[in-house]
Amino acid sequence: MSDLRDLYQEVILDHNRHPHNFGELDGADRHADGHNPLCGDRLAVYVNLDGETISDVSFLGSGCAISKASASLMTDAVKGKTLPEARRLFEEFLALVTDEGAVLDDARLGKLAVFAGVRDYPTRVKCASLAWHTLRAAVDDRHEVVSTE
């Protein structure tokens, strides 16, 4: 179990140090900003759509390791997904970080499973879920700043 926890921590630290899809997406079809006042995380999510498919996605911002790693892994997970698939993944991710009894599809979650331990730290759930709430606001074309409060 300790080896697994170490691996999970390494994945989070690596995505924090070297985030994927980091930067503003020029000409994005959709955009939303998010803020976690408790931790100070701030990020923007940019989305390009090809019909109902997320053809490209990126994020820009700063925050704690969990927040940045979550945004990085989220962009990898939703790129190429349809909007309904991305919304289902959003719901599964929230269940992963909040509901210990949730029955989850590990194959669909993939590397996102590293966030399962976050549910034991309620303040960190907000860090892990900020990017996801911000993505949802972007794909729903909502323009208010997303807040975890």
Average pLDDT over all residues: 90
Percent strand equals 15-25%
Helix content: 40-55%
Number of domains: 1
Number of E-state strands: 4
Shape call? globular
CATH architecture: Alpha-Beta Complex
| H and E string | HEEEHHHHE
Detailed description of the structure:
The structure is a single chain. The protein contains five helices and four strands. It has 149 residues and is of the alpha+beta class. The model has no long low-confidence stretch (mean pLDDT 90). It has helices spanning 2-17, 65-78, 83-98, 106-109, 122-139; strands at residues 30-36, 41-50, 53-62, 146-147. A hairpin with a 4-residue loop joins β1 (30-36) and β2 (41-50). The chain has a single domain (2-144), classed as Sufe protein. Chain: A. The protein has a four-stranded mixed sheet, covered by helices on one side. α1 packs across α2 (65-78).
Describe what is shown at a glance.
By secondary structure, the protein is an alpha+beta fold.
SSE layout and pairing:
Layout: H1 2-17, E1 30-36, E2 41-50, E3 53-62, H2 65-78, H3 83-98, H4 106-109, H5 122-139, E4 146-147
Which labels suit this protein?
Sufe protein. Chain: A, 46% helix, globular, alpha+beta, 4 strands, 149 residues, four-stranded mixed β-sheet
